[in-house]
What we know:
By secondary structure, the chain is mainly alpha-helical. Helices cover about 70% and strands about 5% of the residues.
Amino acid sequence: MPDPGLSRLPLVGLTAHALPEYRERFMQAGIDAFFVKPPDPEAFLATLQRLARREKAVQTEEGAALSRKLEATGSLGLGTIREYAGDDPETMVRLCDAFIKALPQYAEQLDAAAEKLDLSEIRGIIHKLRTSLVIFGASEALALAEALNETAKSGDTRAGADQAHELAKRLTALLDDVKILRDGARAD
C-alpha cells in the first residue's frame, strides 16, 4: 500500500474501451480519472485542472475531529476516499450516498447467497463490492472479502457461508462510519 503522505502524479485514463468492466479495471489499478475517446473537451480540461491543483486540504478543526473519530474505529481510510474524491466535498457526499445505498444490498445478497451455499454468487458479489471497499479504504472489510474469495475458490461451502455472513455483518457496521464521513463532507 502506498504511503498516503507521499504525493504522486495523478493518472488519467483515456481509452476506446467504454464497457463498465474496463472502467472498473482501470480504477482498481489506481487511475484518478477515466475518459472514453473522444472525451468531452470541457469535462476533460476541468478534470485535468482539478487534478493539477489538488493538494492536501488543510483540515478545519471539524475535519480533524472527524478524522480522529473515524481513525479510532479503523474501518475507513480517509486518505483513500479523499484522494478519489479529489478533496471535493460534493463528490465525497455523492460517493458516500452511493455506498450507503449499496452496503445493505451487498450485505443482504451475501447473506442470501450464504444461505443457498452458492459460492459462485458469493464470488460475484465480492467482485462488485471490491472497488467500493478500496475507494473507501475499508481495509478490514476488504481483507474479509479477499479471504472469503479464496475460500469460495477452494470450494469449502460451509466455511464460505460462515465468512459471507461475517462480511455481511462487517458491511452493516461500516454503514454508520460512512454516514459520519458523509455528514463531515457536507459540513465542509
